[in-house]
């Protein structure tokens, strides 16, 4: 007669749940978002030289910048400073 302690049952090992495979909708959404980001960056990089060029042609302060002038760009305050003598302005 076998006792309850003498019988052995196979033990189940605990396994961490695996993450599900991405669905088609998830892959399509990530592709669309990356294309949108690429389009926005391309548009920004295309328009930025046009905006600065037109301000220079109109006679704004950027028209006074010459080779060798020091330009300081501060991304935290969103300012662009040019070291130009007051006599040139």
In words, what does this structure look like?
The protein is mainly α and 89 residues long. The chain has a domain of 59 residues. The chain is 39% helix and 9% strand. It contains one helix and two strands; from the N terminus they run H-E-E. The chain has a two-stranded antiparallel sheet. It is elongated. The mean pLDDT is 76.
Topology record:
Blueprint: H1 24-58, E1 71-74, E2 79-82
Antiparallel strand pairs: 1-2
A few lines on this structure:
By secondary structure, the protein is mainly α. The chain has 1 helix and 2 strands; from the N terminus they run αββ.
Properties at a glance:
9% strand; 1 helix; two-stranded antiparallel sheet; mainly alpha; 89 residues
Main sheet overview: 2 strands, antiparallel
Radius of gyration: 32 Å
- Return the structural class: mainly alpha
The average pLDDT is 76
How much of the polypeptide forms β-strand, as a percent range?
Answer: 5-15%
Strand line-up across the major sheet: 1-2
Helix content: 25-40%
The number of strands is 2
Mass-distribution shape: elongated
Strand and helix order: HEE
Distance N terminus to C terminus? Answer: 107 Å
Query: Unreliable segments (pLDDT under 50, ≥5 consecutive)?
Result: none
Compute the number of helices: 1
């Amino acid at each position: 007669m076998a006792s309850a302690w003498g019988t052995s049952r196979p033990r189940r090992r605990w396994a961490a749940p695996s993450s599900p495979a991405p669905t088609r909708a998830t892959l399509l959404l990530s592709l669309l978002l990356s294309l949108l980001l690429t389009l926005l960056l391309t548009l920004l990089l295309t328009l930025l030289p046009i905006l600065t060029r037109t301000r220079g042609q109109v006679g704004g302060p950027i028209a006074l910048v010459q080779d060798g002038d020091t330009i300081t760009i501060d991304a935290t305050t969103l300012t662009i400073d040019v070291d130009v003598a007051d006599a040139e302005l």
